[in-house]
Amino acid sequence: MNNQTDKIVNLSHLILNKIICCLDDNIDRFCFSLVCKRWYKDRDKYLILNLDNIFIRGVNNTDLKENNDSFRLPAYHNIFMKSIQSKTNCTLLIGKKLTYRSSYDFIFENARDIIAIPSYISTVAVFTQLSESDNQYLYQMMSESRSVTELIGYRSLKYKIPNTITKLSTTFNFNEPLVKGSLPNTLRHLFLDSDINNDFEVGVFPEGMTKIELIHNFQFELKPGVFPSSLKILILPNYRFTLKPGVLPNNLYKLRYSGEKTTLVEGVLPESLRILDIASAYWLEGPASVLPVNLEQLTLNDKYCTDLLPINIKTLPPKLKVLHFHKSYQLIGSIPTSVNDLHLAECQFEFNELFPPTLQYHFKQFKYSNSEILAIPPNLKIDRLVVEGSFAKPITSLPSGIESIYLGMSIQGVPFSGNFIPATVREIRLPYSGMMLPTLPNTIESLDLGENNLERSINMIPPSVKTLTFSESTKKVQPPEHFIKNFTNIIYQNYYGYGGYRVRKLTDQFSLVYLDSNEQLFVHIVNQKKIERLLHHLTHFKSKV
């Protein structure tokens, strides 16, 4: 690539910065800067880090260095410091350091230690019981700040909510009645995390609010007109009353409503609604649909019902794109061809009825739970197949023609039977078996071992694998030479799905190791010869690697 004439290499710093900001992962941003000599040389002029998962825990250079001493790229030190010092959405917590250290930028156990709230603080969280005088002191500090827009842990209406607050979350024991004027007109998002024992009068929620989450139990019915016309998202997971016409505003976009064993009449759901979560099969019992014709995403879940409820698919809106069943239903009729994301759970159905052979389907994701692998008919094109459940029999085959397969079931104690993975598969997540893995075809480029031990699996990895994901390794392993030569990415993911390390190959000699978790930022370049030790020590990887 000629740095003098190549148009891509010579993109302006402004354009390079815009490209960088489109990359969410910092490991991609680092690698981007290493594409060519010019981009590396000019890195200080366009490169900045994504700070969403980086907590700074300090304001001066000494604090930053001590709290982020695992950042081991001297050539990027200035970029790291510039990024940290430009963070304007920092979080401040009043609570126990040991309990909440991993989730906040600044933590004070005593509210009186806060002299003033700096302009780079946008969120204040109170997770401890404060005295009356300390509460008054804290709310005075917030009222003098222009930067705080989110308050977590609001306990009592006797403390005036600052006018800068746009997002408010109450404590679980908040039990005071909200009346008109309780909430500031600047509020956009309310998370009410307590039982609701008092009626809401019309006007209690100010016009301009866009999201309301009323999480716990209701002791009263919602009145028509109680919600502002500006509301876009309404979360009512434990509301057990029947919704009446006029309760939901005409501009509502998303509704999460338990509504189990309640009826729903036509006109209750506004035509603006596009996403409906935790809907009930009881709403679909009539001859005509009560769901908006333009609904795009629907999730049904009658979790408290033990009966096998029938669902007539004909009553579903014709433009659905996402359809998820979260319990077992008896499905009758055919799925609309507009659906591209389908979760069947343990539903009972006939393939020829649900997917008529005369119709063609294309699913970005097709998911089901079962005790065996289902045969997929030829009129279904599936980009990603997800299978869950508990298997008591060996897996003998997988559907062909699918490039991405996620096997999330457990088949512990059941051996794999033969070479069951078709050559069309490019990406696969293997089920947990506790046994030796099957022979993998030399077409797989991305392999997720799930909870299978790396020690038992390492020699089964074919040369085609570029990305390896694993979560457990009990002993030191010796990777095959072809893996060290061919891999591009190694991802270690812990049991809880976060806090994993990523290894990105840079050259045949070096790889970049990266972690940005709540606990620390770790960035380091290691020699390829140390990959063997790295695979074993990722769970407690430090500078010794």
From TrEMBL:
Highest taxon, organism lineage: Eukaryota
InterPro entries cross-referenced by the UniProt entry: FNIP, LRR_dom_sf, STK_FNIP-Repeat
PANTHER family the UniProt entry points to: FNIP REPEAT-CONTAINING PROTEIN, FNIP REPEAT-CONTAINING PROTEIN-RELATED
Protein name in UniProt: COI1 F-box domain-containing protein
